[in-house]
Specification:
Oligomer: single chain
Structural class: alpha+beta
Shape: globular
Number of helices: 15
Helix content: 25-40%
Radius of gyration: 25 Å
Largest sheet: 5 strands, mixed
Mean pLDDT: 91
Strand order of the largest sheet: 15-14-16-13-17
């Protein structure tokens, strides 16, 4: 069919526009969050759903890269000039997204905001080791007494209560990134937001997606860095479908049931994480160590590993083996478990127990809990009622009144053994199992951050925890992802922090990265 010359031109322009649009989309990275952020303030966001976005909008003194390790970003250096005194020299090339300099005042504003009782943020615990921080949070001292001192426009000092060689790792959290005076963190005011990270928000379609564009004032960022689309998708199945339809090109979580079909494919990746996921025992089981032992010995951990297609074995610590050396694990021993269980009081054996877990873990966590329910019923005759719970309500319950049995996923904020074990020390806010052991606390609190001694002390602490049957560890955790091969330069470290500062997206038709 022959179209008029004018119509042919219109068709040509339309085809070119479609090609340009398609190429523009292909040059973007796209992934999803499980929910839409209600705030852009890193002081009030926890978990990967917030950090995948905020860690790329806000950067502080240091970052942690899976290959480079801990390296300065907003700092030229931070160094211990005494065991309890840190001096930080600010990197003059690290600027706000509007080009204005980041100064000492911006960091001190962050520190004082976090410890101010009016802020009501748990992120202040990143500064727990700073002199007077806890007293300020508790309203016992004025915020001006916080152990932070301005030396110059680009230099400040932090005084600690006691030596803490791991303190610099705290700076990798976006919660300790610099804070502008009178910054509005309301999502509706995103156009006013000035960032300190590699990206800024270009657009926000409420209920749909956020688009990020490169912050050209961030060191190393330029026009070659792609834009990023972040969609809001509540469930893993929908996210997988969007990946298959090429709406997403970075799938941050693959369902367990899909792993066998993905293995061996070029876009399937499994990354080991530093975590301490566990099955916990509540106050009702505190005085029933033999019951806890029977529960631990009656699970066929190898079978659970097959269900999860896990690279680490359940029943062993989730911590990476590099932290503690030779594995310390519970083994499936049904004969011994039955002997121990038979000696328990009848009311314990016949009681119906409840096992709680968070819904946010998705279908894979649900499947694992159903398997555990079945194992305890089949092997010991115990009736278990599963209780899935929304994240907010679940954490509130764990804090106020921990249930009899519960599963807890624990991401770590530092790549050290101490970061994984300190939550079981007596006074820690997240000690939901209410564990009390002075020897354990002493070992953990005085544990070095690295070296042979750190490995030895880590192993000792783990052995105490395991010998007491204080919990059932869920094994070393690997995150399963699907990422299109043309999405390059991203980094996901062992704390599940996504770094897009070196991101490149190469059109699939191109041969040159």
């Amino acid at each position: 069919m022959q179209y008029p010359v004018g119509m042919q031109k219109l068709i040509t322009v339309f085809i070119i526009a479609l090609c340009v649009s398609s190429l523009a989309e292909e040059r973007k990275m796209s992934f999803h969050l499980l929910s839409e952020p209600h705030s852009l303030d890193p002081a009030h966001i926890r978990g990967s759903t917030g950090s995948y976005l905020l860690s790329n909008l806000f950067r502080g003194l240091y970052s942690f890269h899976s290959k480079k390790g801990l390296h300065p970003t907003g700092a030229r250096y931070c160094t211990f000039i005494k065991p309890t005194l840190i001096e930080c020299d600010i990197n003059p090339n690290h600027k706000w997204s509007n080009g204005n300099p980041i100064t000492t005042e911006d960091y001190i504003r962050t520190f004082t905001y976090l410890v101010n009782p009016k802020s009501k943020t748990v992120q202040w615990e990143l500064l727990r080791g700073v002199k007077n921080a806890e007293a300020v949070v508790n309203g016992e001292k004025d915020v001006k007494s916080l152990g932070v001192k301005k030396i110059s426009l680009m230099k400040f000092q932090i005084e600690l209560e006691k030596p803490d060689p791991e303190f610099l790792y705290n700076f990798i959290s976006p919660a300790l990134s610099p804070r502008r005076k009178n910054q509005n963190y309301d999502p509706l005011a995103f156009k006013e937001l000035k960032t300190s990270g590699p990206y800024v928000i270009k657009s926000w379609k409420l209920g749909s997606k956020i688009t990020l564009t490169p912050n050209l004032n961030f060191p190393g960022m330029n026009s070659l860095n792609p834009e990023v689309d972040i969609y809001f998708v509540e469930d893993d199945t929908t996210a997988m479908n969007l990946y298959d339809k090429k709406v997403l090109n970075f799938l941050r979580r693959v369902e367990v049931s899909a792993i066998p079909a993905m293995q061996g494919k070029p876009d399937f990746i499994q990354i080991p994480m530093s975590r301490m996921d566990y099955l916990g025992f509540g106050p009702e089981l505190k005085d029933l160590p033999k019951f806890r032992q029977a529960l631990a010995l009656s699970l066929n951990y190898s079978e659970l590993a097959k269900i999860y297609h896990a690279l680490g074995r359940p029943g062993c610590p989730s911590l990476p083996k590099k932290y503690y050396g030779t594995p310390i694990c519970y083994d499936f021993n049904l004969q011994k478990a039955k002997v121990i269980f038979a000696q328990l009081p009848k009311e314990v054996r016949n009681r119906r127990w409840k096992l709680y877990y968070g819904k946010q873990g998705g279908e894979s966590i649900k499947k694992g809990m159903e398997w555990i329910q079945s194992q305890w019923k089949r092997h010991l005759g115990i009736s278990i009622e599963l209780q899935p719970s929304e994240t907010g309500m679940y954490i509130a319950q764990l804090t106020k009144n921990p249930p009899d049995l519960f599963r807890k996923g624990v991401g770590m904020d530092r790549p050290t053994c101490k970061a994984g074990l300190e939550i079981y020390t007596e006074k820690h806010r997240e000690n939901y199992i209410q564990y009390k052991n002075r020897t354990f606390d002493s070992i953990v609190n005085n544990m070095p951050s690295s070296g042979p001694s750190a490995v030895t002390q880590c192993r000792k602490a783990l052995q105490i925890l395991m010998d007491d049957y204080a919990l059932i560890p869920m094994g070393e955790i690997h995150f399963s992802l699907r990422v299109r091969p043309h999405v390059l330069g991203w980094d996901l470290n062992e704390m599940n922090q996504l770094d897009l500062s070196e991101l490149r997206v190469v059109p699939r038709a191109s041969k040159n990265p």
